Amino acid sequence: MTPRDGRPWLPVALLLLQVPGCWCLSGPTSVTGTVGGSLSVQCQYEEKFREMVKYWCKSPCVWSTVKTKEADLEESNGRVSIRDHPANLTFTVTMENLTEGDAGTYWCGIVTSWLPGYFLDPTFLVVVSVTPVPSSVRPTRTPGLHRILPAPTWSTMTPKESPNPSQYPGSLLGSVHFLLLIFLKVPLFLIMLSAVLWVNRPQ
């Protein structure tokens, strides 16, 4: 290609069409969501693209993740949905049930070329970040507070075992001897003492 062709600007024009962040599209440069949560991205376009198909894709953007079909009608593909709002020249992309694998570079785009791969479409780059769910904070124990135990009940109390006499032979023999002393030996001693006194009484 030479200046005589009258088209020396063509390579430059094709290069500009592939530059991220086309002036005819705008939106947030980055968004952040949490694992298990959702996030939304709103892209603004110019009036001349009102009737064209809009899409959302992840880099390298060989195929679109999801794209519009009709105005104000939500289209979805798995956990990703898109809706075009021609009244305010915007379209919104929503990603739900986020995972860490969803993080990466995405593109808001408008179909203007028949070429595959969306190389000549106006696009806008958006960086998506997904953070893990914060770990729950463990409850701190307040000093000075003690755990209050429930009052014991009959069902929780262990009955005290009564002593087994066979386990204490010495104490058993002592009690038998005491009974013999009271009921047999003492009366017998008193009878004998009385007899002696009767025999030795003064005449």
Low-confidence stretches: 1-21
Q: The CATH topology of the domain at 23-131, please?
A: Immunoglobulin-like
Chain-averaged pLDDT: 76
Strand arrangement within the widest β-sheet reads 1-3-8-7-6
Number of DSSP E strands: 10
- Name the helicity range: 10-25%
Q: Kindly provide the name of the CATH class of the domain at 23-131.
A: Mainly Beta
The CA-CA distance between the termini, in Å, is 174 Å
Decide which structural class fits the backbone: alpha+beta
Organism: Zalophus californianus (California sealion)
Protein name: CMRF35-like molecule 6 isoform X5
Main location: membrane
GO molecular function: transmembrane signaling receptor activity
Question: What do these coordinates show?
Answer:
The chain crosses the membrane at residues 176-199. GO terms for molecular function: transmembrane signaling receptor activity. This is CMRF35-like molecule 6 isoform X5. One of its GO terms (cellular component) is plasma membrane. The structure is a single chain. The radius of gyration is 50 Å and the shape is rod-shaped. Helix content is 19%, strand content 26%. With 203 residues, the protein is α+β, with helices and mostly antiparallel strands. It has a domain at 23-131: Immunoglobulins (Immunoglobulin-like), CATH 2.60.40. A hairpin with a 4-residue loop joins strand 7 (80-85) and strand 8 (90-95). The protein has two helices and ten strands.
